[in-house]
């Protein structure tokens, strides 16, 4: 079949019923017209391409199948959770607070898994459930400084990202006793 080598194509955003800036009447060369549109917000974009036609081909148009989804970039932050401490003792459970920070929010919270890596090796994980943050427990078997990072793998609306490394210092000695009570719970002394 012959390929159009004339005419123009304009690309339109069907969400807002307007053409993309810089994407009007682009020349068709060997059957191809290319648009490099800049979109401001994450979300689903429905696109149509309108061909002007030329001496051999009639005007036509077509839609991008299921549209195109633009994901929101994210950054990760990582901190020792308030109920834990740095430095910690060997074999003491330490909780880390990993937070997904979207650069542009979408209509829902991020979902999926956040991995905690110790010294470059993925070892622990937590799931995001209707929030931007998750606490992930970790245990350290060896004494010394350990580089800890959190990685959000991303989902269908948010891109994945990795936190800057945090150094967790682990010292020798017995870990502090733990209780089943949450760290913010206070108890009264027994009455006599």
- Helical content stands at under 10%
- Taken from the alpha-carbon principal axes, the silhouette is rod-shaped
Low-confidence stretches: 180-192
Residues in β-strands, percent: 35-45%
Structural class: mainly beta
SS element count, helices: 0
Number of strands: 16
> What characterizes the major β-sheet?
6 strands, mixed
Give the distance, in angstroms, between the N- and C-terminal Cα atoms: 96 Å
H-E string: EEEEEEEEEEEEEEEE
CA-based gyration radius: 27 Å
Average predicted local confidence, pLDDT:
85
Topology summary:
Elements: E1 8-13, E2 18-19, E3 26-27, E4 43-45, E5 47-51, E6 60-63, E7 68-70, E8 74-80, E9 88-89, E10 93-102, E11 112-118, E12 121-128, E13 133-139, E14 144-152, E15 161-162, E16 166-171
Parallel strand pairs: 9-16
Antiparallel strand pairs: 1-2, 1-3, 1-5, 4-7, 5-6, 8-10, 10-13, 11-12, 11-14, 14-15, 14-16
Features:
rod-shaped, 192 residues, mainly beta, five-stranded antiparallel sheet, single chain, disordered C terminus
Description:
By secondary structure, the protein is mainly β. 0% of the residues lie in helices and 43% in strands. The strands form 4 sheets. Strands 9, 11, 12, 14, 15 and 16 form a 6-stranded mixed β-sheet that branches. A hairpin with an 8-residue loop joins strand 5 and strand 6. The radius of gyration is 27 Å and the shape is rod-shaped. Mean pLDDT is 85; it is low at 180-192.
């Amino acid at each position: 079949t012959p390929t159009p080598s004339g005419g123009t194509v304009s690309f339109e955003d069907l969400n807002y019923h307007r053409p993309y800036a810089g994407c009007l009447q682009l020349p068709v060369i060997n059957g191809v017209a290319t648009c490099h549109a800049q979109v401001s917000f994450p979300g689903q974009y429905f696109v149509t391409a309108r061909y002007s036609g030329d001496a051999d081909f009639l005007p036509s148009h077509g839609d991008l199948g299921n549209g195109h989804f633009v994901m929101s970039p994210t950054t990760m932050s990582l901190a020792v959770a308030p109920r834990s401490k740095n430095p910690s003792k060997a074999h003491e459970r330490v909780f880390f607070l990993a937070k997904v920070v979207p650069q542009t929010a979408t209509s829902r919270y991020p979902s999926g898994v956040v991995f905690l890596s110790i010294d470059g090796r993925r070892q622990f994980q937590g799931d995001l459930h209707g929030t931007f943050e998750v606490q992930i427990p970790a245990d350290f078997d060896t004494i010394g400084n350990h580089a800890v990072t959190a990685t959000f793998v991303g989902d269908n609306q948010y891109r994945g990202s990795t936190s800057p490394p945090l150094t967790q210092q682990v010292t020798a000695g017995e870990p502090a006793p733990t209780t089943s009570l949450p760290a913010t719970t206070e108890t009264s002394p027994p009455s006599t």
